[in-house]
Design a protein that fits this description.
The complex is a heterodimer.
Chain A (H helix, E strand, L loop, with lengths): L2 H18 L7 H26 L8 H18 L3 H23 L4 H21 L1 H4 L5 E2 L5 H7 L6 H25 L1 H11 L1 H6 L4 H27 L1 E2 L6 H14 L4 H18 L6 H15 L4 H13 L1
Chain B lengths: L1 H31 L6 H17 L4 H24 L7 H22 L16 E3 L2 E3 L1 H23 L1 H11 L1 H6 L4 H27 L6 H15 L4 H22 L4 H15 L14
Helix pairs in contact in B: 1-5, 1-6, 1-8, 1-9, 1-10, 2-3, 2-4, 2-8, 2-9, 3-8, 5-6, 5-8, 6-8, 9-10, 10-11
Classes of the chains: A mainly alpha, B mainly alpha.
Amino acid sequence: MNSISTKYATLIAMVAVIVIAPMFFPSSFYYRIGALIFINGLAVMGLVVLIGYAGQVSLGHAGFVGIGAYAAALGPIYLGLPPVLGIVLGALISGSLAWLIGRPILRLRGHYLAVATLGVGILIYMVLNNEAQLTGGPDGMPVQAIGLKEFLKSIGYSVKGSVMWYWLAAIVLLVGAVIGLNLHDSPTGRALRSLHDSEIAARTVGIDVARYKLRAFVISAVYASVAGSQLALMNKFISPDVASFLHSVELVTMTVLGGASVIFGALVGATILTALPQVLTMFEDFEHVLLGLIMMLVMIFMRAGLVPSLIKLIRRLTK
Amino acid sequence: MSEFLQFLFSGVTVGAVYALVALGFTIIYNASDVVNFAQGEFVMLGGMSTVFLYEAGIPLFPAAVLAIILTSIVGVALNKLAIEPARGASVVSLIIITIGASIFLRGMAQIVFDKQIHRFPAFSGEQPFVVGGATILPQSLWIIFGALAIFGALYFFFTKTLTGKAVLATANNRDAAKLMGINTNFIMTLSFAMSAGIGAIAGVLVTPMTLTSYDVGIALALKGFAAAMLGGMGRPLGALVGGLAIGMIEAMTAGYISSEYKDAATFIVILAVLFIMPNGIFGRSAIDRV
């Protein structure tokens, strides 16, 4: 399979999943889960660029999700922005912040990079949690609706909020996928993948390693931020938990579970880890045990993640 | 002055606990290059098992010893079942495995124990000593001197015993150690047992002061990890200095600036240190092989 067909295969598979899934939804609650999956999937796609392409780890990306979420919440209140522009504001802030802190942080390697990004995430979380007069503190705050539902109603379409968000988040996810897929084979993508394999080798052939790492970091921060804004606007409520360390870990787990090197893996990883807790509530007490077990088993037996491992298996069987 | 002394006492006490957690990170990292995010769960298991054994009628001291042994067994099981099968996996995969293990252990604790907050009595009563106008609890002294004793014992173990030197040799170069006839698999097992045991001791020491519940591990793991990185990963002295430094920063920030931002101060200092010294305070700079 050459890379162009990989790109279209991914997009066709994603569109198919998005269109076919609702046929099996027994209630509108499932649309909400679906929208949540797509939103998480978008943040995870950003991490595919950072972890899968560039090979850099971040344990603080939920911080950028938090910035996006609170930009969408606070922009309309303090700047009089329409909520949709809150998404742009969040992306701008997250992107600039990532650009500012990225250069010193990305000099670090492996576990040192992990602890530095962890620190950044925790600092963002603490600001959101402690500046209660601005953010409502740990109790969270309400978020203005985007008003699309009312607009649709006024022109004669009456849709449920969850159904509308399902399609909105799906469209944004597809846009994110197209950008991510194009990036893979662009000069930037090639540079990132080469420095993933060996920074020294990449530098030897004239790649500005620091600049490309920074670029991947900024891109992934913007993806996370847009996901956060959508989450706030869909739920019409936001609390600092979206920026917590555990959420950062969840995002990284989704990335690696689905297969960090492939864009489609983002959707698979997000689906499993978003839907799983809903399924596992049946097992109540065993939820954590099963989640931990799944994380360990997949990483031990399918190191490349689900999607690449399955593709490999299918290829071996069809040969 | 008495105010400063008070903050100093609390900083050293908390710092000693962080240093023990960081030491656990260091031992496992040296043996296997794995940063074990389940380290905090060892602390939780040590405290929680002691609580439940004690409430079952076993006297405190044997209960604590039993809890430490049990936790060490969990540590060995973690190595055999999750870390060894994943040898050679990437840093991110190993991080996910150990985070998975920590979620798993937390879930098991929820089932085997419960979701309540627990404590057992302090070892030497609750009557605080007054020093220079500040007070210090006897349990604080247990924690501080307990940590010092463990560091002392480990220093002796690593420099004076053959097994300790074998651990150091394995940490330096696994293949070379194997060629010298060192059973590196045994060293790995030993390291996990030691690290889990030290975590459990920290849990036993700290529970009378800070209480324990099934979810205390994660915050400790974060602080311990940060302490180990601040000092320089893989250096026991770095773990001690890093742990005490973070304890002091927290106590001073909480005392003089704002208790809400005590964790923020910790991470700002860590970021600042890593910007200047990308391998921590005592870390050696890494050299890549092409």
